[in-house]
Specification:
Length: about 230
Amino acid sequence: GILLARRKDIFTATDYNILHQRKDLDLIIELTGKSEVFHDLLDRKAESVRLISSRTVQLFWEISSLSLSHKKVTQELQEARATFKLVMDEMIQEDVMIINYNYKIIDINKSLLRRLGLKREEVIGRHCYEITHHRDVPCSGENHPCPLIKTLESGKPYQTTHTHLDKDERLIYYSISTYPMVEEGDVIGAIEIARDITRDINVQKALLQQEKLASIGRLSAGVAHEINNP
């Protein structure tokens, strides 16, 4: 990946701290494969900068290989599918769905199935909003946009944050990114990759609450001091 980027005159760095000094970046692709590097980048990058992990890049690579394999013999196609499933189910820790243009789920990985508490046959062919949001209609609204619609309309990746319900009806927060699947120039669906950010949001809320309590403490101490002065 590094060599290909350099051949295409894409900026590369072996010390990722350099990236935070640049103001002209809109995308960072992490190719180290180290989770601590990815999470450090995620915590420190600007909100306007998108970040793709090496695992996600690997997924795209395998999907591309799978598309090309349709022109090859049946055995090669089966091997590519096996590799794709390996990447989807074993190498990717994020939740992954492949959705076509009418919101129906074409494929789903084991990570998401485990979280939902469902079997593959209970999910394939059903609408994504039924499975992840327990809704009868697609997601909508300013605060809950449908990333698939945005990708189908623009033909570009889209990122948003959604609240989901797990199998125990508990509220969890997910960062959702969709990437277009293009066939003969037309966007026919999207790959949806979701990451649980519930812990991050809860930590942010806890820190905010602590800051509020600290502010109240400082205010109270100041008031007490002023009262005691006379």
